[in-house]
Amino acid sequence: MIDQPRTPTPRLGPDACSRSWEDAGHPVWGTAAIARFWVALEQPGPWGRDAFTESWLDPTLGVELQRACQDAGGRLVLVRSVGDRRSRADRAPRQVFVAGGLADRPWLVTGAVVDPAELQGLPLDLLAGPDPQPVLAALPGTRLTDGGIVLVCTNGKRDVCCAVRGRPVALEASRARPGQVWECTHTGGHRFAATGIGLPSGHTAARLTPELAVRLVEAEGRRELAPELLDLAHDRGRSHLPLTHQAAEGWVRGATGETSLTALTCFSSGDDWDDEVTVTHVDGRVWRLHVHKEPTGEQLVDSCGGGPRPAHAFVVDERGPGEATPAGSPGRD
């Protein structure tokens, strides 16, 4: 008889999807949204399911900015301060953050724009590079900062879990780190709520608590990863890496506690779902890993309001000394 995927007893409540995934205990490695850079634009007021067209932001501009960032390999998100009370008539300057250089030494530019359309002048094709100067030149009201920020998804119209679990985290963490914790629109992976993105590193975290969000902010300021988040329950990956490299790097960091952004390099065969990844450390250590996505044998709800679906997760197996893994092509890190 063929075993059928089992469906756990449904969790009740508005955050049932994220609770069911948390109960299942599968690794969250390799689930970060892929982005070579991040642009965060302050947009006060309510957000609909598609915040770029269902908010107070001009919908034509929202679509154009979103598409331009996506076409350049990056990601645009809307942000607002926690507990924002600004009205639609408020024409005060908007805060903007641009994070780039993720694959090397990440940098973060911050400042304000009077008109969101000013972002159309960003040199998006240069944002993945190591030099923030083109951004500073394109947006005169900005500056390079050595601090860090955390964006916590609270877009409840996109998924209820993000509002129910994300907003309390953003509220409490912002009290401890004012101006460094922002609510943001959908970033993917709401089944892991509360989810957050640390900038400038692009480190994506699952199941944040207020305390973990603060640790993430602090680590971003040190330009390293938060050790408290380097485990299979929290470390979704760094956004500039392919998914299998996110999973491989997460496995190594979990095993070693390595927090440096520049200590590890990944090489692989390049398969998106069943990959042979070699991870090298600057000190000469090498890990040869088989990274593959497998069905978990469960039916889980991965979005609030949806039905159960077969669940999948990345599995990472270490190759033995006699099981050589081809280095293949270098990863995009």
Structural class: alpha+beta
Number of helices: 6
Mean pLDDT: 87
Low-confidence stretches: 1-12, 322-333
What strand order characterises the main sheet?
A: 5-4-3-1-2-7-6-8-9-10
Shape: globular
As a whole number of angstroms, the C-alpha radius of gyration is: 20 Å
Largest sheet: 10 strands, mixed
In percent, how helical is the residue content? 10-25%
Number of strands: 15
The portion of residues forming beta strands comes to 25-35%
- How do the helices and strands follow one another from N- to C-terminus? HEHEEEHEEHEEEHEHEEEEE
Termini separation: 45 Å
Structure, explained:
This protein is an alpha+beta fold and 333 residues long. It contains 6 helices and 15 strands. It has helices at 16-24, 59-71, 133-138, 160-176, 210-222, 243-256; strands spanning 38-42, 75-81, 94-100, 107-113, 142-145, 149-153, 181-184, 196-199, 203-205, 235-238, 264-268, 274-281, 286-300, 309-318, 329-330. Strands 5-4-3-1-2-7-6-8-9-10 form a 10-stranded mixed beta sheet. Strands 14-13-12-11-15 form a 5-stranded antiparallel beta sheet, covered by helices on one side. A hairpin with a 4-residue loop joins strand 12 (274-281) and strand 13 (286-300). Helix 4 (160-176) packs across helix 5. It is globular and about 65 Å long. Residues 1-12 and 322-333 have low confidence and may be disordered.
